[in-house]
Amino acid sequence: MSYKRNIFFNYLYILPVVILVAFLYLYPILYTIYISFTNFNLYHFFEYQWVGLANYITVLTGGTFWQVLVNTAIWTVGSLAPMIAVGFLLALILNQKDLRGRSAFFTLLLVPWAFPAFISLIVWQGMWNWKYGIVNKVLAIFGIKPVDWFDVVPMAWTMLILTNLWLSFPYYTSVFLSALQSIPEELYSIAEIDGASRLARFRYITLPLMRKTIAFVAIGGFTFTWNNFYPIYILTGGGPGNATNILVVYAYQAAFNNSLYNFAAVYSVIDAAILIAMAIIMLKYSGVLEAIT
Amino acid sequence: MKAWDVLRLGISYVILAVAAAIAVFPIYYIVITSLSDIPTIASISIGSLIPQPRGLTLDAYKGILFGNPFLLWLRNSLILAGATVAITILLAFLSGVALSRLNVPGKRALMITVYVLTFFPMTVTVLPLYLMFATLHLINTYYGLILAYSSGTSIYGAYLVKLFVDSIPKEYEEAAMIDGLSRLGAFVRILLPLSKPVLAFLGLIAFMGAYTDYAMANVFITSSDLWTLTLGMWYLSFVNRSTLYNVFAAFAVLMGIPIMAVFLAFQRYLTRMYTMSGVKG
């Protein structure tokens, strides 16, 4: 009796969060799934009907969805690879014991992370301007002709990925640096005594010990970048056309610019389904799941 | 070997110097612009980025503080962010401690649910919340936005507090309870002070979430009396074409530099918390 009463009181503590999850997460998610099966939009605002899979068929047989899906993959992988590479390289550089001014450099490198991204993105939007932007003015010093960063698709991708790299590399540098610093110094001294070259020490000590951190960061970075709304929304708005649009931005615009709630819902549901499937696969093979529950 | 070390360090310094310059450049660019007479983005040149003591002026700051409703937007942003921080810390602490310490059947299932929920794109919830809040008359109120902001952070926060409290030995509260404290008393008197580091971090995440949100505010707020800093900045940069560029720059400095200063001041602690929690700010 008292055990059951105890469990009841125990639930009271987590009740607020359960209510929040239920009303502000679970219910909205179910509602979105429901809307994706109706014709609820600007044209059927007050009276809408269940239309079954019609929206899904329209979306999956049209060209836009596949383009946006491919874009989302380009955006995620294209951003993540340079972020991890640059972050790792800078962490290795900062981890050299005989380097002076390490903490000063580290602080300067943290600046893009410390400054609110929403503001920096608006600033970058102006800096990339074709005619007046400072980027093209700096490039002019090196004799490079002005680049149209917004209307030429490959240039737009370059701009988006470089801006995202600027925004995110400090996080990766910081995580990798703290992982590098946790590797015991003795391992390296013993290997050195045994005659292992610098490259061999990196290959057989650093890399294996960093594998878990890299997996952890790559999975977190993948899910974050996949649904990273602001860089694309602010810099290109998905343009030109939908050439750089990604699922989450497209869904937001469909809902709030065009009032096509049903299609926005379809895009959101598909977006989440793909991401969850990929996250499960990645978590399963990396062994990170044990660390998070 | 010696020559190799010199080369290695030399290359390292060059790479670090270039990376640091690129990292800092946009912030420097916006600070120097805010202090110069730069009416449009076209007036910025390599030359204008080099400070000339005689050309420096605070006009742009007067423009943003007194010529625009900056203070109103700041007030709205701080109200939203403050309430979000308070609700987040309260709920996340209570539920996080409960998840860590109490025997609640279905705990693991709840943790996995919470983790999976973080994969859903923001649009999945913004759209139905918008329709829900419209029926509840929560559009154009502080309450609607505060609810929307604190739901995400409290859920995530509960998860974070649980991980943190797991690392505190149970004996601390057990000893206090033998001395006559109730369980809630033990949580508040013993665990709350010990959880300060994680709660401070959570407060910062909650603050930043509300302070830099545009996507939700753009949907839930239409009345200009309730505009936040982000809505105001969007309006001045992309809608109102008559905004002077140095005034925008002053806005960016006033809104961004305090955040940056706090982040850099507590960098050691913050980078450790971010690394531990696995989120990217």
Short descriptors:
heterodimer; A: 293 residues; mainly alpha; MetI-like fold; 75% helix; 0% strand; globular; B: 281 residues; 2 domains; 13 helices; 74% helix
Fold and architecture overview:
The complex is a heterodimer of chains A (293) and B (281). Chain A is an all-alpha fold. Chain A has a domain at 63-258: MetI-like fold (Orthogonal Bundle). Chain A has 13 helices and no strands. Chain A has helices at 2-35, 54-61, 63-94, 102-114, 117-127, 134-141, 153-181, 185-193, 198-226, 230-235, 247-256, 261-286, 289-292. In chain A, helix 9 (198-226) runs antiparallel to helix 12. The two termini of chain A are 30 Å apart. In chain A, 39% of the residues are buried. The mean pLDDT of chain A is 87. By secondary structure, chain B is mainly alpha-helical. Chain B folds into two domains: 2-64, no CATH class; 69-238, MetI-like fold. Chain B has 13 helices and no strands. Chain B has helices spanning 2-34, 59-66, 70-101, 107-117, 122-135, 142-166, 171-178, 183-194, 196-211, 215-220, 229-239, 245-265, 267-277. Chain B is globular, with a radius of gyration of 24 Å. Chains A and B meet through helix 1, helix 3, helix 4, helix 5 and helix 6 of A and helix 1, helix 3, helix 4, helix 5 and helix 6 of B.
Distance between the termini of chain A: 30 Å
Instruction: Extract low-pLDDT stretches of chain B.
Output: none
The level-1 CATH class of the domain at 63-258 in chain A: Mainly Alpha
Large-scale geometry of chain A: globular
Largest sheet of chain B: none
Helix content of chain B: over 70%
Number of helices of chain A: 13
**Radius of gyration of chain B, in angstroms, nearest whole number:** 24 Å
What is the residue-averaged pLDDT of chain B? 87
- Terminus-to-terminus distance of chain B: 41 Å
Per DSSP, what share of the residues of chain B sits in E-state strands of 2 or more residues?
Answer: under 5%
Domain unit count of chain B: 2
Supply the CATH class of the largest domain in chain B.
Mainly Alpha
Give the averaged pLDDT of chain A, no decimals: 87
In helices, the fraction of residues of chain A equals: over 70%
Order of SSEs of chain B, N→C? Answer: HHHHHHHHHHHHH
